[in-house]
């Protein structure tokens, strides 16, 4: 049911209430000091489609789920002390040259580029930016801007490595958690080099690309980078055509799709010692954190279900997957890198999918769940050695307004009718499937229909699916070197700041990183040193006697 609009609490009517709160925040700000240490661990949470308006609405929804009016609520990610805005749209300035991450530095001359061919980007080009450190063309994964969408031959020689790949080469454990298929554009940018984000399996590739030697994204998931933890959806792209799905064996639409006859799950298991594969929550729960070095969990044939549609007995939540991943990855004394993708318009990954379908409640619940994963990750790690970053790849044409009163349901109606004498919801979309005209006018919004999880909010322009938007997205950070996230930055800066914080390539030879290694090595005594100390102790005892 819709919350009843509330009158402001009496305490809020006093200037002292606000003055006291502001002083408390000032005192906290004055004690804030940069943590200028090397990050042992990095966790990157990416809310697919989680723009600023989605974050604001999710904050209110979280508060209303807890029984409050919502506006005064706070998301876990909003407690992070450092913040920046990332530019996700634009065009390439004339003469700008894009260099791979290992050839760039943090000077302004290397950061004045945008998503190369789109003013408003997609999840593949943005994923390449914040994971690989270079801007790229839309719909391409893990490739520089020299690669052309759909042209296999432009892949070779234009590959760029992600921070996940470089963390693994540095000896850290690495993992991916997503509510989409693990071959989706956002997680795919962490390990794949593909001229098309849609080449999920070989069955999705044109014959020319296969003939020219390109590999599908699922194949690259298993063979490109030694990933310790892989959790999400996407079973059908991993097994041979007509292989029955373990969860839906009677539905041929969920069968495996591979034409090459390869069972990539079996290949992955046979290549890893201590590896486990699971496909439901029961299997995930049964995995002992200290008994496996590698874990793959694929919980749906394609994307995982929206949180509001999830079967809690068979499918794990993004919170549960995040916890399992961290418990496994943190056993590595060298640290870990974890990429968590919650699609707001898709789930973590699905935030994005919810918005694309014009179903705001699905999208906002995904954002709330991603924030719960952020909170749980904070409980399982320490900001003294773990850099946690929360951001989005892009936003959506999603907004809420209408002069609604305090405590109005975030999915509720505006208090006054529109010029056409019909009610409308506070939440609206600039375009999408919610556009509707009957008998020359739009239908009036009403309750309780507008509160339904599958209700489509009205849109101004009719489109089959709602689109991304091009405004900047927020970057929130806490932990070592989190202060590097400040001001307005290009989106590809995110990968560089994380690499610098953890002393990963191309910053592994920075003076601060060399000094940290000397200190680390200096605290470890060699066997020869221990024997010498033991001899001195024995000599001292003999002299004393």
UniProtKB/TrEMBL annotation:
<protein>
    <recommendedName>
        <fullName>Alkaline phosphatase</fullName>
        <ecNumber>3.1.3.1</ecNumber>
    </recommendedName>
</protein>
<dbReference type="GO" id="GO:0046872">
    <property type="term" value="F:metal ion binding"/>
</dbReference>
<dbReference type="GO" id="GO:0005886">
    <property type="term" value="C:plasma membrane"/>
</dbReference>
<dbReference type="InterPro" id="IPR017850">
    <property type="entry name" value="Alkaline_phosphatase_core_sf"/>
</dbReference>
<feature type="binding site">
    <location>
        <position position="352"/>
    </location>
    <ligand>
        <name>Zn(2+)</name>
    </ligand>
</feature>
<feature type="binding site">
    <location>
        <position position="393"/>
    </location>
    <ligand>
        <name>Zn(2+)</name>
    </ligand>
</feature>
<feature type="binding site">
    <location>
        <position position="186"/>
    </location>
    <ligand>
        <name>Mg(2+)</name>
    </ligand>
</feature>
<feature type="binding site">
    <location>
        <position position="48"/>
    </location>
    <ligand>
        <name>Mg(2+)</name>
    </ligand>
</feature>
<keyword id="KW-0472">Membrane</keyword>
<keyword id="KW-0325">Glycoprotein</keyword>
<feature type="binding site">
    <location>
        <position position="394"/>
    </location>
    <ligand>
        <name>Zn(2+)</name>
    </ligand>
</feature>
<keyword id="KW-0479">Metal-binding</keyword>
<keyword id="KW-0378">Hydrolase</keyword>
<dbReference type="InterPro" id="IPR001952">
    <property type="entry name" value="Alkaline_phosphatase"/>
</dbReference>
<comment type="subunit">
    <text>Homodimer.</text>
</comment>
<keyword id="KW-0460">Magnesium</keyword>
<dbReference type="GO" id="GO:0098552">
    <property type="term" value="C:side of membrane"/>
</dbReference>
<feature type="binding site">
    <location>
        <position position="48"/>
    </location>
    <ligand>
        <name>Zn(2+)</name>
    </ligand>
</feature>
<keyword id="KW-0862">Zinc</keyword>
<dbReference type="InterPro" id="IPR018299">
    <property type="entry name" value="Alkaline_phosphatase_AS"/>
</dbReference>
<keyword id="KW-0336">GPI-anchor</keyword>
<feature type="binding site">
    <location>
        <position position="356"/>
    </location>
    <ligand>
        <name>Zn(2+)</name>
    </ligand>
</feature>
<dbReference type="Pfam" id="PF00245">
    <property type="entry name" value="Alk_phosphatase"/>
</dbReference>
<comment type="similarity">
    <text>Belongs to the alkaline phosphatase family.</text>
</comment>
<dbReference type="GO" id="GO:0004035">
    <property type="term" value="F:alkaline phosphatase activity"/>
</dbReference>
<keyword id="KW-0449">Lipoprotein</keyword>
<feature type="binding site">
    <location>
        <position position="184"/>
    </location>
    <ligand>
        <name>Mg(2+)</name>
    </ligand>
</feature>
<feature type="binding site">
    <location>
        <position position="468"/>
    </location>
    <ligand>
        <name>Zn(2+)</name>
    </ligand>
</feature>
<feature type="active site" description="Phosphoserine intermediate">
    <location>
        <position position="123"/>
    </location>
</feature>
<keyword id="KW-1003">Cell membrane</keyword>
<feature type="region of interest" description="Disordered">
    <location>
        <begin position="240"/>
        <end position="260"/>
    </location>
</feature>
